[in-house]
Design a protein that fits this description.
2 domains, alpha+beta, 39% helix, 6 strands, 6 helices, three-stranded antiparallel β-sheet
Length: 137
Amino acid sequence: MQQAKTKKSISVPEMGRMLGLGKVESYWLVKKNYFTTIQVAGRMRVMLDSFEDWYAGQFHYKKVDGTPPGAKWRHTTMSVPELAELLGLKSATAYDLVKRAHLETMIIDRRIRVVNDSFESWYAGQSHYIKITERSC
């Protein structure tokens, strides 16, 4: 009985199709050294584990199959628009709040992410803002 082989690498065009990208942008990502690559029979291949690790740590590119990016950060941080939605604010107000409240932030993939623990500790110590889920009708 033969076991099914699991793929360990993908071609650059295959990676591009996964992300809905053209040839130039696919090779540009490879050139930026975001993934581990190998040469097989003179052709460049992207190691699947390095691709998945990169995908989980970024928010810009999205797979065409609908898998959300940024899984590595989603449980510990939130975007400023997510914070705005949580508190029922406009995005500009949320950005101002992040700045004024001195919430701990991280820059991930050139985007500001608010550390959840920092937000929750600030939220517990204030009384002005109320989460949408805690508001009474």
